[in-house]
Write a structure and sequence with these properties.
It contains five helices and nine strands, in the order αββαβββααββββα. By secondary structure, it is of the alpha+beta class. The protein has one domain. The strands form two sheets. The protein has a seven-stranded antiparallel β-sheet with strand order 3-4-5-9-8-7-6, covered by helices on one side. A hairpin with a 2-residue loop joins β1 and β2. It is globular, with a radius of gyration of 17 Å. It starts with a helix and ends in a 5-residue tail after the last helix. The N terminus is likely disordered.
Length: 166
């Protein structure tokens, strides 16, 4: 009986005892896509790092006061390749692989980046979204799948929220 109680307490301690948000940086996204990217814990906070309305928006998510995820969205000139700009950080994030998301994307062990063409204030741009995970995953293949699912849904929603039309 004691063993069952200890096992049950351990399982509870390793769960997500906080509400998983239905938005990322004020952009609606199903919480089921965010949940696998967050670790177990008791408390959750989300804080904007850049305000929406400029060329860059972003936020950070923390669990138990430890930063876990960083998100950034930005507008870039149409003739600039965002993946070239972020090549080194993506490489440090672990073996970035091409993904069929937007115009182009890379999914790494603990990061993802995708971009799409858009028109903003009458000018052509590239709308870029990034997600950076602070902890190395135990299951790299699953983390990559989770990142790909998340960024596939997030890119068009964030682009629309920014007023960047396709």
């Amino acid at each position: 009986m004691v063993a069952l109680l200890v096992a049950g307490a351990t399982a509870c301690a390793q769960g997500q005892d906080y509400a998983v948000p239905g938005d990322v940086c004020d952009v609606e996204v199903p919480s089921a896509l965010v949940k696998p990217l967050l670790p177990p814990g008791e408390s959750f906070t989300q804080r904007n790092t850049y305000e929406r309305g400029g060329d860059i928006s972003g936020c950070e998510m923390s669990v138990d006061r430890r930063q876990e995820l960083t998100f950034q969205a930005s507008l870039m000139p149409a003739d600039l390749d965002p993946l070239d700009v972020k090549r080194d950080p993506l490489t440090r994030s672990g073996n970035p692989q091409k993904a069929n998301i937007g115009i182009d994307a890379r999914i790494a062990d603990d990061a993802a980046m995708a971009y799409a063409a858009c028109t903003y204030k009458g000018e052509p741009h590239r709308y870029v979204v990034e997600v950076w995970v602070e902890r190395r995953p135990a299951d790299v293949a699953k983390r990559r799948e989770d990142l790909a699912r998340f960024i596939t849904a997030y890119l068009p929603s964030a682009q629309k929220a920014a007023g960047c039309t396709a």
